Amino acid sequence: xxxxxxxxxxxxxxxxxxxxxxxxxxxxxxxxxxxxxxxxxxxxxxxxxxxxxxxxxxxxxxxxxxxxxxxxxxxxxxxxxxxxxxxxxxxxxxxxxxxxxxxxxxxxxxxxxxxxxxxxxxxxxxxxxxxxxxxxxxxxxxxxxxxxxxxxxxxxxxxxxxxxxxxxxxxxxxxxxxxxxxxxxxxxxxxxxxxxxxxxxxxxxxxxxxxxxxxxxxxxxxxxxxxx
Length: 228
Ligand code: ADP
Ligand code: ADP
What we know:
six-stranded mixed sheet
């Protein structure tokens, strides 16, 4: 099954910005990078693709279901570009709350299995020792790591990450790239919004360049570098 297919997704804002006629196909098992400068339209595209923002035109399928279908969310993990946690909660509590949002009952969110999964995703994102601390004691980078942990919690088939390392230093960015490679090795599919060429060079199997709301090129890094 193709993870994500979009056909002509378009959203135009008053100023003439947004996303124009975006058609992409994300195959399973790859790390796909959507690369573009700030304001290119990456977040707008992703929000349309997962049904958070209604397109002016275009359509698509997410995890085999029409975009916006509630069931397509089941296998999806999403890290928004901007997120805010209830900062009086601990990292573990945020994750438990998140599991509740994804349909787990109160009992299930408090089960030993969930506690173990929460420990796993905290460890995967480099927060292994901080799960009992309140989010208000986290740095911006740690909050971003917690967002990543939330996106991975339900063991999604497809992970869509909107600038997952924007608040991280070079070592943190390297760790995120390693995590993406680990997800790919587990057979997951990753869609990455980034403005960092180093990210797509280091880990992306396929990349699309977005500029001023339009796709400029799509292909493997090798194809794009030799395109002349
Ligand atoms: P990126 O994620 O690549 O930084 P965005 O998708 O956030 O880009 O934004 C693309 C363009 O659309 C920008 O020019 C931005 O200012 C504009 N834009 C995004 N959201 C809105 C909105 N809700 N209303 C008006 N303009 C918007
Ligand atoms: P923003 O700050 O960019 O508006 P939010 O944090 O409000 O983003 O989240 C936007 C939407 O994304 C919400 O409807 C929320 O349920 C959904 N969402 C947040 N985290 C995830 C996740 N890990 N997986 C799937 N959907 C998520």
